[in-house]
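Students often ask what a 'structure token' actually looks like in practice. Rather than answer in the abstract, let us consider 1-deoxy-D-xylulose-5-phosphate synthase, a protein of 625 residues. Its sequence is given first.
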Amino acid sequence: MDVPRILDAINSPADLKVLTNEELAILASEIRQEIVATTSVTGGHVASSLGAVDIIVALESLLDMPRDRVVFDVGHQSYAHKLLTGRREAFKTLRTYGGISGFTKPTESVYDVHFSGHASDSLSIATGLAKARQLKGTHEKVVAVIGDASLAGGMAFEALNYMGNEQLPLVIILNDNEMSISRNVGALMKHLGNIRANNHYREARESLQEAMEAGGPVTRGFLSLGKNMKESLKQMVIPHSMLFEALGIVCTAPIDGHNIAELRDILSLVLEMDGPALVHVVTRKGEGYEPARRDPEAFHGTGPYDIATGNAIKKAAKHPTYTEVFGAALADEAAHDADVVAITAAMTGGTGLKTFAAEFPERFVDVGIAEEQAVGMAAGLAAGGKKPVAALYSTFMQRAVDQMIIDCALPDANVVFALDRAGLVGDDGPTHHGVFDMVYMRMVPHMRMLAPSDEAELACALHTALALPGPVALRYPRGEAEGAVLPDRPEVLEVGKSRVVRAGDDVALLAFGRMVGQAKKAAELLTADGIECRVVDMRWVKPLDEEAIAEAARTRLVVTLEEGVISGGAGEGVLEVLARQGATVPAVALGIPDQFVGQGPVSQLFADLGLDAEGIATTVRARLK
Ligand SMILES: Cc1ncc(C[n+]2csc(CCOP(=O)(O)OP(=O)(O)O)c2C)c(N)n1
Ligand SMILES: CC(=O)[C@@H](O)[C@H](O)COP(=O)(O)O
Ligand SMILES: [Mg+2]
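Now compare that with the structural description of the same chain:
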């Protein structure tokens, strides 16, 4: 690969202004080399970022940043933006502990507008920025860059509805690569496909001219332009999508998202418009790096890899992941029970559902990036007599808390919430840590929740959740499981019953989920100090095992351990039970304090939070003094 040269001279987007289209294209290829060089070491969202390079170079060469605002949806495609906005050196620390984020982050750079990471929010943020601009009487441009899959999320639709009505001037760059993490799904995706396949540009252009002559909201943006610009734009914009145009949003014909000259031509026009405009840009995920082009799903989010082959560089895993165990267990449940239906919200691979989808295609539902739809639909499936399992990442389930409460819990619907990535996830950082689920599940009447401590417990937790009436959630973490032996057939766990995994009279460690492993290690350390710990795998976050808590109160200290926020979490639940029982034993709840946790290896984050065995032992020693 060539040594980057133009990139060396770029300190901010202002430096792009002197470059020709040809030089910008060379710069784009240098940026791609830089992205590959860094992510081959750090890992990251390679395919999306490579696909968006030309869009970002073209766009930022036209803007006056940071005055003009670019809102990146999810932010996983924003690496070129990072490299153009003074973070070239820091880029080497991408997604590492203490390094720069894999998403946009305003505390990292004035060029970053919002804390991205969750899909489909960019248009709402953009409408807010445009409204604020209107109220202030200022003139900065507002642009949102959003992918085809994220555009189908409910929030994005709600923002389209608002901006079309208000005719807020802002530009949406639709980065259409026909992919979500895997192949995109849904009717909007089909609509975009039809547009791409539509060859009748001439007729469409003519009908747009007629529409413009007739006036109406769609033409308002054009009418604000000067005569020459209006003429040029007429040539480029066609009424090819009744959907957007009916909403009052001007839409361009699909344009080549890897042609910087074409991108700049069109963007420079729509940036002058006086109403909302959508630029339909067709890109290829992984553009410029063959292994990512060949397998964009593997390169959506990847760990370190060998640049020459694209092969992942990873340590051989000793055990399967929790996700893999869940996927196999659910397929097994479905084989025994024809009512089981699995739902994913665009995370088939991430939630371990590929086997299920292949074996039971008619009972597999991918709603796209639409967690509210996933949970609302689960409620409907349950009302129709089925046993839906909504398999969602804990952090994305936050989108559907209302549907969980009103549509599932209130009617006591037989819905299973399988919350993957519960707890700290590592390199994705604060937007992706699944640390709130025990709070939002615990607070809701009728809800029950399990926190399995290993993969055998996970299989039994799933079996239990499917066997019980009413809504049941289970939470399990990202990554390798503990190496427990899986049962031939999972058992139904008794509701609200914990299990003692180590006996001891001095201290009771009441642990939830994988904190049981840390508790066992802490107990080992404390034995050396003559402190004997009882370790309890609490199993149930709700209902809590009150007998086990009463038993714990007979020791000298009760410590609860959870991989979630302390406030409103399981440990606070235990403290409430102790108080109700009139216990006087000192008790402390360990978990995540009232702060957002950064990115980095989970073991490092655990140590920082005092949640590893050492940290737990230190707390116990201090409390017993
Ligand atoms: C609310 C939410 N659900 C799911 C995800 C996981 N996720 C991250 S990127 C992505 C696919 C995005 O596809 P698209 O918007 O088309 O962008 P592309 O990756 O194709 O560039 C998904 C499902 C998320 N970040 N946020
Ligand atoms: C950007 C995004 O939300 C996903 O790509 C996420 O990074 C996936 O995380 P996992 O690696 O845990 O599946
Ligand atoms: Mg896409």
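One point worth highlighting: Residues 21-42 form the longest helix (22 residues). Ask yourself how you might have guessed this from the sequence alone, and why that guess would often be unreliable.
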